[in-house]
């Protein structure tokens, strides 16, 4: 990712932080804008062209989206369009990130945990993953399938994120989209996500102690996603981004075998 895009993402996030009236309707409009912009090479190119004056790009946003979108939505889209992006594709990804962040602002539910849970469901069901992520098939039908699967099982914000992403995957794998969305939501809420592999479910006390230990280590609030994996035998394996803490019995046995063999 270019430095221009990094700065643009930061500026767009700051615009969201200072915006008022951001609710799920605004988030829905942002996702709809992502679909409109990604579906038009002419529009995405015009809005991300740094050779065009920033106020002209903002004017184009107002002309295209102003008549039907809320002022808060148009203001956020205008702010994003006035930044300097490294490419049109990264501009579209920046808008998508903005939509996910807006959902995290508007929705109080535990979106991170719900995204993780749905990702695990997709990972365990090849037919479902193909139905949602296959290049064939109607996009709106995929969104309807997500809504049916999540109805009563997840917050409206989570359903919005998942249905929007699968309808406009742009060739990306569903699980990768869900992991990225989970990371964005956690960042918006100033949290980090720790994936914990354990042989058995953790008790509430164990979860609290682990969260406190990880918070002290990383200096941030921690969301725990637990994966039950009998192969760890005992203990825990914790992954935070690329950092892995492996205190499982299986890891200790593997280390012992290596020492004996070496």
Which keywords apply here?
262 residues, alpha+beta, 13 helices, hydrogen ion transport, ATPase_OSCP/dsu
Quick recap:
This protein has helices spanning 3-18, 24-38, 41-48, 54-65, 71-81, 88-106, 111-123, 126-133, 139-150, 156-167, 174-188, 204-218, 249-261; strands at residues 191-198, 221-228, 236-240, 243-246. The chain has 262 residues and is α+β, with helices and mostly antiparallel strands. The mean pLDDT is 91.
Q: How much of the residues is beta strand, in percent?
A: 5-15%
Q: What is the overall pLDDT average?
A: 91
How far is the first residue's CA from the last residue's CA?
Answer: 42 Å
Helix content: 55-70%
Task: Name the helix and strand elements from N-terminus to C-terminus, one letter apiece.
Answer: HHHHHHHHHHHEHEEEH
| Main sheet overview | 4 strands, mixed
Gyration radius, in Å: 21 Å
From the spread of the alpha carbons, the general shape counts as: globular
Please give the count of helices: 13
Protein name: ATP synthase subunit delta
Organism: Microbacterium phycohabitans
Family: Belongs to the ATPase delta chain family.
Keywords: ATP synthesis, Cell membrane, CF(1), Hydrogen ion transport, Ion transport, Membrane, Transport
């Amino acid at each position: 990712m270019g430095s221009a895009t990094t700065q643009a993402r930061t500026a767009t996030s700051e615009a969201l932080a200072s915006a008022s009236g951001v609710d799920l309707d605004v988030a829905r409009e942002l996702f709809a804008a992502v679909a409109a912009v990604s579906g038009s090479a002419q529009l995405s190119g015009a809005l991300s062209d740094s050779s065009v004056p920033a106020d002209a790009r903002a004017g184009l946003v107002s002309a295209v989206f102003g008549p039907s979108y809320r002022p808060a939505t148009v203001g956020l889209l205008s702010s994003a369009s006035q930044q300097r992006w490294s490419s049109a594709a990264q501009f579209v990804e920046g808008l998508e990130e903005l939509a996910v962040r807006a959902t995290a602002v508007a929705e109080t539910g535990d979106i991170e945990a719900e995204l993780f849970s749905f990702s695990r469901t997709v990972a365990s069901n090849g037919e479902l993953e193909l139905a949602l992520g296959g290049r064939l098939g109607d996009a709106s039908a995929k969104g309807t399938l997500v809504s049916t699967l999540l109805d009563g099982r997840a917050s409206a914000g989570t359903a919005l994120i998942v249905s929007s992403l699968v309808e406009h995957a742009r060739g990306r794998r569903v699980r990768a989209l869900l992991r990225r969305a989970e990371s964005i939501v956690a960042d918006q809420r100033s949290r980090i996500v720790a994936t914990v592999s354990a042989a058995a479910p953790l008790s509430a006390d164990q979860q609290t102690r682990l969260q406190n230990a990880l918070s002290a280590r990383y200096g941030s609030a921690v969301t725990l996603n637990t994966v039950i994996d009998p192969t760890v035998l005992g203990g825990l394996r914790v992954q935070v981004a690329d950092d892995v803490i492996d205190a499982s019995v299986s890891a200790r046995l593997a280390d012992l075998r290596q020492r004996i063999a070496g």
